[in-house]
């Protein structure tokens, strides 16, 4: 039986403790194996894994890395070492019901696909995309360039793709990954997948996508550290633009649409921009400094300039109101909110 290696790069004890308790220990199937790749500065995660392995029969392994290793390099090294037929790079912001996911993937013949974009139920119809799709069904997209346009943003997440290992290892064999590492582009997983799709577009490459209600937000995961300072502009604007600049020329056809969707998807949503203004990440100095990169989508620059005039104290009030509304909404009716969507992003 083909297997999927769930690769979990982390250094957060409470996140991985929650994942082990709620996702890995309850799993009783045969499709998934689990690897924890730890770069924390103590042995707490290792001791936790050792203890769990002693008391439960789990297909779980552990590997330690130097504290100074970057999240990207750790994830890339972990993927390079995968020996199963498929891998699922899983951010520690996710909780997964692997028993139900296994049943669905086998029923839907996941092994016919080189790449399956995985998304949560609450995102169906997000930004008017795939609102007509049903949950827990793998759909095939035969137009590979449209697939790249529609799912580029999703593929930047850690936890958003199940990938055929042999298919992906071409990025190492042909050194596709090298330029993204050298340029320190944090969105390497999506860009490298786009290149692989283009390289194989004249062959039999099957591209799938699925929405499921068996993936949820890990409450132990906090917001991204890198969006709280100037790196927000570097990663969201400069590095995305740079990544597209080194893709094969055919991707110019979808560049504007893919970048626009990527920005609106979460990191430039109105709600998140209010939060960024409340912590003064959105300010005139940085908006002016990164003007050229932001203006890849001209309306985005106008929006950020206007937001600079919003008093920070008022943005803080709006943020408190927003959080209160979300709390009440989740308390009374449940459901997925935007803060959980944002926290579902890939960063370790």
N-to-C series of helices and strands? EHEHEHEEHEEHEHHHHEEHHHHHHHH
Number of helices: 17
- Shape designation: globular
Note the beta-strand portion.
5-15%
Could you explain the architecture of this structure?
This protein has 348 residues and is α/β, with parallel strands linked by helices. Helices cover 48% and strands 14% of the residues. It is built from 17 helices and 10 strands. The strands form 2 sheets. Strands 3-2-1-4-8-6-9-7 form an 8-stranded mixed beta sheet, with helices on both faces. Helix 1 (13-24) links the parallel strand 1 and strand 2 (32-38).
In terms of topology, how is this protein built?
Blueprint: E1 4-10, H1 13-24, E2 32-38, H2 44-55, E3 60-64, H3 71-80, E4 86-89, E5 94-96, H4 98-107, E6 115-120, E7 139-140, H5 144-155, E8 161-164, H6 165-168, H7 170-173, H8 178-182, H9 188-199, E9 207-212, E10 215-217, H10 231-245, H11 255-267, H12 270-278, H13 284-289, H14 291-294, H15 298-307, H16 312-333, H17 338-343
Parallel strand pairs: 1-2, 1-4, 2-3, 6-9
Antiparallel strand pairs: 4-8, 5-10, 6-8, 7-9
Helix pairs in contact: 1-2, 5-9, 5-11, 10-11, 12-16
Summarize the structure.
The chain is of the alpha/beta class and 348 residues long. The protein is 48% helix and 14% strand.
